Amino acid sequence: MGTTMNRRTFTKSAALALGATAMPALGATPPRNLKIGYSTLAWDVSARDSKNFEASLYDIANLGFWGFETVSPLLEAYDPDGTLTRLNDKYHVPLKAGYIGVNVTDPSLRKQNLDTVVRVGKIIQKYGGTFAVIQANSRKQETGTFNFKEHKAEIISGLNEYGTALADIGLRAGLHQHTGTVVETRDEVYAVMEGVNTKVMAFAPDVGQLQKGGADAAKVVKDFAQITEHMHLKDYSGGKYFLGYCPLGLGVVDLESILNTLEETGHNPDVMVELDRAPDTPMSALETAQFSKAYLQKLGYKFRG
């Protein structure tokens, strides 16, 4: 994606790339059982204006995705005022999961964060969701240069406590590694996921973030396939748009291998397509969702009528 590429040329290039995407060979892939949903992130939704939130659910429902995921500030803003109930009744696209940020390196914030995850967890359940996506705090919140080894025990302890609190109300949870947070690199992901109590804290990776952070996302997913219960399905190109991410099939993430791995486990984890928003993007949220849906259809995935 060159710096001179405008909306028209980007969209044309995307269409050509999709047309060139290789069809899976007959008999080469497992049956397609995953019911893939979509994150509302691409629509730049906020708790200050419900119009974009409604637009996201309208598009997600009309495209036939099987559910949606959104972030805790939206859940907490739109539950009391009835927005979630109204939109659920209007579009009939189910909430699958909620995204919650927590602090795992400052024990003094543990109780406050526990109260938050339980409060938000109950909202997720209220609307039929079954999973809490847990993101750790930013590395920038730590003074000086962040040293993962010094904080490893605190990180694992915090994740276990949050996972246990959510399990106590009947909700599953998983770690969502993220660039810029205290669980970012490949080695940090392995250290944490090999140390946590996976009965209460599963793996909920963002494969685009893994690739951006220098990991082989397909290899990481294969290594933790048995405990992967949720996923952000995201592609990464390193281009100028979408913070380096891109619609599915335009980047370097081995998405087909990742999906094959999930299919082979038979666990049917929740999978949410996601794409970050950024200024001056050459495609609308709807266009990127249409593109990603077409890519998934070429892999054999079905969508709601």
Structure explained in plain terms:
- The chain is of the alpha/beta class.
- It has one domain (35-298): Divalent-metal-dependent TIM barrel enzymes (TIM Barrel, Alpha-Beta Barrel).
- The protein has eleven helices and ten strands.
- It has helices at residues 7-20, 50-63, 72-78, 83-91, 110-126, 148-168, 186-193, 207-212, 217-223, 255-265, 285-298; strands at 36-39, 68-71, 95-101, 131-135, 172-175, 202-203, 230-233, 235-236, 245-246, 270-273.
- The strands form two sheets. Strands 6-5-4-3-2-1-10-7 form an eight-stranded parallel β-sheet. The chain has a two-stranded antiparallel ribbon with strand order 8-9.
- α5 (110-126) packs across α6 and α9 (217-223) packs parallel to α10 (255-265).
- It is globular and about 50 Å long.
- It starts with 6 loop residues before the first helix and ends in a 7-residue tail after the last helix.
